[in-house]
TrEMBL record:
It comes from Guillardia theta (strain CCMP2712) (Cryptophyte). Residues 5-132 form the PRP1 splicing factor N-terminal domain. The lineage of its organism: Eukaryota, Cryptophyceae, Pyrenomonadales, Geminigeraceae, Guillardia. This is PRP1 splicing factor N-terminal domain-containing protein. Pfam families: PRP1_N (PF06424), TPR_19 (PF14559). InterPro entries: HAT, PRP1_N, Syf1-like, TPR-like_helical_dom_sf, TPR_rpt. GO terms for biological process: spliceosomal tri-snRNP complex assembly. Keywords: mRNA processing, mRNA splicing, Nucleus, Repeat. It is found in: Nucleus. The keyword Cell cycle does not apply. GO terms for cellular component: catalytic step 2 spliceosome; U4/U6 x U5 tri-snRNP complex. Its main location: nucleus. PANTHER family: PRE-MRNA SPLICING FACTOR, PRE-MRNA-PROCESSING FACTOR 6.
Length: 918
C-alpha cells in the first residue's frame, strides 16, 4: 500500500527502483528465438532465421501457401512416373544381384499346390545333424564326480606309501597310472587308468616306419631304384594326408545324406543321381556307384546325361549294352551318347554298322554324316551325295563344300550351284566358288562371282553385306591360303561398304596400313590401287604405293607403278622423289631392255630433267650417278648446266667439291669465289675454302677466310669449330682458346663440348676440363653428347655410376646409349653391348657412329651372319650424321661406292683412334 506519513500536511514520499521495476524494454514474444548475429548470417542466403515469423498469419498468406503447395504437387506429379520407373528398375537390378529368399523359392512354392496327400506324407523328416553334433560335443566336455569309494581307496594307498614302481609302470615307463587292480576292481572308471587311452609307443613307431618303407618302395623307380619322393617332407605330407582323409570321410558322409535326401524327395531329378554316383566313385565304392546310377537310369530313362554317366563308369562290354538301351529310349539324341557309342563300337570293330544304324534312325543328323564320311575312303562321294542331295542334310554347308572338293572342276561347279540354291545366305559357298575358278585358271570370273554375292546379300538384307571387317578378314585368309585374285576381289567389292565418298581416302589409307602391319601385302596393294583410281594426283599415295612395292614387291611391279605415275602425260610428273626412286631402282636392281643399269637410270633422269628442269634434287642425283661411275666429265657438264638452270647453294657446293676431290684446287677456288659472291651466308662454302687453303699450305689466307666467314655467319657453330681446329692444328693454342671464347659468346650453349675437349687435350689440364664439364652440365642438363663425354672422362671404375646419372637425365638419347654400349663392349659383356647398340640404332638410324661401333663389335666377336645383318640394316638406314661418320665420309679425295664401304672406313678410323689411345 502506498502510505506516506504527513500526506495530509502536503508531505510527499520518495520512490525507489523497486517501486518502478526494471528499466529495460519488455520482451516481445518470439524475439528470444531469433538469432540475428553474425554467426547466423550467410552472404548469399542472408539470416538463418525467419525475419517475419512474428507477423500475423493472414488470409493472403494462406492463399500464397496454397498456390505454392499446388505448384509443388504439380511438379512432383510430373516427375512421379519417371521417378517410380527409375526406382523400379533399380530395385529390379538389385534383386537380380541379391534376390530375396521369397523370390528364390516362389516357383517351388507354386509347385507345392500340385502335391497330393501321399506326396506330403512321403516327405522324409529333416536329419538331426546339428543336434547330434551338439550332443557329441557336450559328451566330450562332461565331467563326473568321483565316488567316495575311489577317494577312500586313494587315501589308503597314500597311507601305504609306495616306494617302488608298479609292474605296469616298469613296462610302460610310467604311462599307466597306478590305481589298484584295474581289471578286477569294481571301481574301474574313466580316468582311473590310462591303459585304454594309450598304446605302446615303440610299436607305434615301428608300424609307422613299416608304412613309410612300403610307401617309399611303391613310389621308387622300377629301373634305377631312385626314389622320386622328398624324404625330408614326407612325414609332414603323410600327416596332412591323414588329416585330409579324416575330413574327407566326414564330408562324404554328410554329402551322402544330403544326396540321399534329394533323391528321396525328387527321384526324377537326374543331376542328384549323377552326383550320388560320382560321390561313391570318389569314396572308392565303384560297385555301389554303378548300382546307384542304374537305379537312376530306371527312374529317369529320358535323360541323356544319366545314361552317359552310367556308360562311363562301367566296363566297355557293359557300357555298350547301356548305350544300346539309351539309344532305345532316346533314338533322336545324337550329341554325346552317339560319340561314346561310336568309341565303344570302334574298339570292337562295329563302328560302321553303328553309324549306319544311327543314320537310319536319325537321317538329318549332320554330326552322324560327318562321322560316317570320316571313316569311308572309297564311298565318301556316295555318302556325301546322299547326305546333301537326297534331302537328308541339304542345309549343311560343310557337307556341300566337302562334296565339292571331291569332284572335278565341272562337277564341283554344279555342286556349288546346287548348294547356293539350297543355302543362299551362306558366304562360304560363294567364296569357295571364287577360289575354284582361280585354282582352275579362270581368275576373270572371280570379280563377277563376288559382285553377285554382295548384291544377293544386300537384297536379302543380310548383316554380312554391311560388315567390312568380315570381308577383309576373308580376304586375308584367301591371301594366306594362296588365292590372291580372290583376296583382291574381296577387297574391291567391299571397299565402299559403309564408307562415304569424302571419307574414302582417310579410311582406305588407315586400312591399308593396318593390313600391311598384319602381313596382308596383296590386300594393302589392292587398297592402294583403289586409292589411286580416285586420288591419282596425290603424291603421298603414290609414294606409299611405291614404298610398298619397294619393300614387299618385285622390281617389275615397282617399274610398272612408276611408269603410271611419272610420264608427263600421266598423273604425278612433278613428284621428284618418285623420279629418284625409279632411277635408283634401275641403277641398283635391274636394267632397261638392251641397256645397262646405269643407262636405264640416265634415261629416267633425262625424262625428269624435261619435266622438272629447276629441281635441285634431280640435278644432284644425276651428278652423283655419274660421279659414282667415274664419269667425271659427265658430272662436270651436268653441274655446269645445273648452275645455269637451278643455281642453288648446294649445286655450287657440289661443283666445288667435285673439283676439290679431283685435285683441281685452283678451279675449286675460282668456283668458291663465284659462289660466295652469290651466297655469302652459306657457311659450308667458307668451311670448304678454309680446308682448301689449309691443304694448299696457305695459313694466312685460311685465317682470312675464317675471319670473313665468322663475320658473315656468326651463328654457324660448325664454322667456328673449323676455325678453332685450324688454329689448334697450327699450334696456336692461345688463338684457338680466344676464338672459342668468342664463339661461346655468340653461341653460348653449343660450344661447351669443344671447350671441354680442348682443355682435356692439354697436359695437366684435366681438372679445368672437369670444371668446364660441370658448368656445361649445369647449364645443359639434358644434353646427351655432354653426358657421353662425362662418362668417357671418368676413371674406369666410376664410369658405371656416371652412366646411371646420364640415363636418369637422358633416357632415350642416342649418344648416351651408344656410349654405354661401348662400355659393355670394353668389359666383354657382348650380349648386353649388342642389346644397347641395337637400341641406339633403332632410336636414331641416322647416327652413323653407332652403326660403326656395333660393326666393330661384330668384327671382333661376332659371326659372318651377325656382321652381314649389321651391314644390311646400315644400308637400309643410310645414315648421314655422326662425328666420325661425317669426318670420314666428307674427307677430301674420298669417294665411296656405297654405304657398306663407308661403314668400313669409319670402323677403321675408330679402330686406329682406339689403338693410339691405348
Amino acid at each position: 500500500m502506498d502510505v506516506c506519513a504527513g500526506l495530509g500536511r502536503g508531505a510527499t514520499g520518495f520512490t525507489t527502483r523497486s517501486d518502478i521495476g526494471f528499466g529495460g524494454k519488455d520482451d516481445v514474444a518470439g524475439e528470444k528465438e531469433e538469432d540475428l548475429g553474425d554467426s547466423n548470417y550467410n552472404e548469399f542466403y542472408g539470416y538463418g532465421g525467419a525475419l517475419f515469423s512474428d507477423t500475423p498469419y493472414e488470409q493472403d498468406d494462406q492463399e500464397a501457401d496454397a498456390v505454392w503447395d499446388a505448384v509443388d504437387q504439380r511438379m512432383d506429379g510430373r516427375r512421379k512416373e519417371r521417378r517410380e520407373a527409375r526406382e523400379k528398375e533399380e530395385l529390379r537390378k538389385y534383386r537380380a544381384k541379391l534376390p530375396t529368399l521369397h523370390s528364390q523359392f516362389a516357383d517351388i512354392k507354386r509347385d507345392l499346390q500340385s502335391l497330393s496327400r501321399e506326396d506330403w506324407v512321403s516327405i522324409p523328416d529333416a536329419n538331426d545333424i546339428s543336434h547330434k553334433k551338439r550332443r557329441v560335443d557336450t559328451m566330450k566336455d562332461r565331467f563326473m564326480p568321483a565316488p567316495d569309494s575311489l577317494l577312500a581307496q586313494a587315501q589308503a594307498e597314500q597311507a601305504g606309501s609306495h616306494n617302488e614302481l608298479d609292474t605296469r609302470q616298469q613296462v610302460l615307463g610310467g604311462i599307466t597310472t597306478v590305481s589298484g587292480d584295474a581289471d578286477s576292481s569294481p571301481f574301474y572308471f574313466i580316468g582311473s587308468s590310462t591303459q585304454s587311452q594309450f598304446t605302446d609307443l615303440n610299436k607305434v613307431g615301428e608300424g609307422r616306419n613299416t608304412y613309410l618303407q612300403l610307401k617309399l618302395d611303391r613310389v621308387s623307380d622300377s629301373v634305377s631304384g631312385q626314389t622320386v619322393v622328398d624324404p625330408k617332407g614326407y612325414l609332414t605330407d603323410l600327416n596332412s594326408q591323414i588329416r585330409n582323409q579324416a575330413a574327407d570321410v566326414a564330408d562324404i558322409k554328410q554329402a551322402r545324406l544330403l544326396l540321399k535326401s534329394a533323391i528321396t524327395s525328387n527321384p526324377k531329378h537326374a543331376p542328384a543321381w549323377i552326383a550320388a554316383s560320382r560321390l561313391e566313385v570318389i569314396a572308392g565304392k565303384v560297385s555301389q556307384a554303378r548300382n546307384l546310377i542304374m537305379q537312376g537310369c530306371e527312374a529317369v530313362p529320358l535323360n541323356e546325361d544319366i545314361w552317359l554317366e552310367a556308360a562311363s563308369i562301367h566296363p566297355p562290354e557293359q557300357a555298350k549294352k547301356i548305350i544300346a538301351q539309351a539309344v532305345h529310349h532316346l533314338p533322336t539324341k545324337v550329341s554325346r551318347s552317339t560319340n561314346l557309342l561310336t568309341l565303344i563300337a570302334y574298339s570292337s570293330g562295329l563302328i560302321r554298322r553303328v553309324l549306319r544304324r544311327a543314320l537310319e534312325l536319325i537321317p538329318d543328323s549332320e554330326r552322324l554324316w560327318k562321322a560316317a564320311v570320316e571313316l569311308e575312303d572309297k564311298e565318301t562321294r556316295v555318302l556325301l551325295t546322299r547326305a546333301v542331295e537326297d534331302g537328308c542334310c541339304p542345309l549343311s554347308v560343310d557337307l556341300w563344300l566337302a562334296l565339292a572338293r571331291l569332284e572335278e572342276y565341272q562337277e564341283a561347279r554344279k555342286v556349288l550351284n546346287n548348294a547356293r540354291k539350297k543355302v543362299p545366305s551362306e558366304p562360304q559357298i560363294w567364296f569357295t566358288a571364287a577360289k575354284l575358278e582361280e585354282a582352275n585358271g579362270n581368275g576373270q570370273n572371280v570379280p563377277k562371282i563376288l559382285e553377285r554375292a554382295m548384291r544377293q546379300f544386300a537384297d536379302m538384307k543380310l548383316k554380312v553385306s554391311d560388315d567390312r571387317d568380315f570381308w577383309q578378314q576373308e580376304a586375308e585368309k584367301a591371301e594366306k591360303g594362296g588365292y590372291p585374285v580372290v583376296a583382291e576381289g574381296l577387297i574391291k567389292v567391299s571397299a565402299d561398304v559403309n564408307v562415304l565418298p569424302h571419307e574414302r581416302r582417310r579410311v582406305w589409307e588407315a586400312e591399308a596400313e593396318a593390313l600391311l602391319e598384319r602381313g596382308a601385302v596383296h590386300c594393302a596393294r589392292t587398297l592402294y590401287s583403289s586409292l589411286l583410281q580416285y586420288f591419282n594426283t596425290k603424291k603421298k599415295i603414290w609414294m606409299a604405293a611405291a614404298n610398298l612395292e619397294k619393300k614387299h614387291g618385285t622390281p617389275e611391279a615397282l617399274d610398272q607403278l612408276l611408269k603410271k605415275a611419272l610420264p608427263a602425260t600421266t598423273f604425278c610428273p612433278k613428284a621428284w622423289p618418285l623420279w629418284l626412286m625409279g632411277a635408283k631402282e634401275k641403277w641398283s636392281l635391274m636394267a632397261l631392255p638392251g641397256l645397262t643399269g646405269c643407262a636405264g637410270a640416265r634415261v629416267i633422269l633425262g625424262e625428269a630433267f624435261k619435266i622438272n628442269p629447276d629441281n635441285e634434287e634431280i640435278w644432284l642425283a644425276a651428278v652423283k650417278l655419274e660421279n659414282d661411275n667415274n664419269e667425271i666429265q659427265r658430272a662436270r657438264t651436268l653441274l655446269e648446266k645445273a648452275r645455269m638452270q637451278a643455281g642453288t647453294e648446294r649445286v655450287w657446293m657440289k661443283s666445288v667439291m667435285l673439283e676439290r676431290d679431283q685435285g683441281n684446287m685452283e678451279a675449286a677456288c675460282e668456283l668458291l669465289t663465284q659462289a660466295l659472291e652469290k651466297y655469302p651466308t652459306f657457311a659450308k662454302l667458307w668451311m670448304i675454302l678454309i680446308q682448301i687453303k689449309q691443304s694448299m699450305g696457305l695459313p694466312d689466307e685460311a685465317r682470312d677466310a675464317y675471319l670473313q666467314g665468322t663475320s658473315k655467319c656468326p651463328s654457324s657453330v660448325a664454322l667456328w669449330i673449323v676455325a678453332v681446329h685450324f688454329e689448334r692444328d697450327s699450334n696456336q693454342l692461345t688463338k684457338a682458346r680466344s676464338l672459342l671464347e668468342k664463339a661461346r659468346l655468340k653461341n653460348p650453349k653449343h660450344l661447351w663440348l669443344e671447350t671441354i675437349r680442348m682443355e682435356a687435350a692439354l697436359p695437366d689440364n684435366r681438372k679445368l676440363a672437369a670444371t668446364r664439364l660441370a658448368q656445361a652440365l649445369q647449364e645443359c642438363p639434358n644434353s646427351g653428347i655432354l653426358w657421353s663425354e662425362a662418362i668417357l672422362m671418368e676413371p674406369r671404375q666410376q664410369r658405371k655410376a656416371k652412366s646411371v646419372d646420364a640415363i636418369k637425365h637422358c633416357e632415350n638419347d642416342t649418344f648416351v646409349i651408344c656410349t654405354i654400349a661401348r662400355l659393355f663392349h670394353a668389359d666383354r659383356k657382348l650380349e648386353k653391348a649388342r642389346t644397347w647398340f641395337n637400341r641406339a640404332c633403332t632410336l636414331n638410324p641416322d647416327f652413323g657412329d653407332a652403326w660403326a661401333h656395333w660393326f666393330r663389335l661384330e668384327q671382333q666377336h661376332g659371326t659372318d651372319e651377325t656382321r652381314a645383318e649389321v651391314i644390311r640394316r646400315c644400308k637400309d638406314a643410310n645414315p648421314r650424321h655422326g662425328e666420325v661418320w661425317q669426318r670420314v665420309s666428307k674427307a677430301a679425295g674420298k669417294n665411296f661406292a656405297d654405304v657398306g664401304e663407308k661403314l668400313m672406313a669409319v670402323v677403321q678410323s675408330i679402330t686406329e683412334k682406339a689403338s693410339l689411345t691405348n
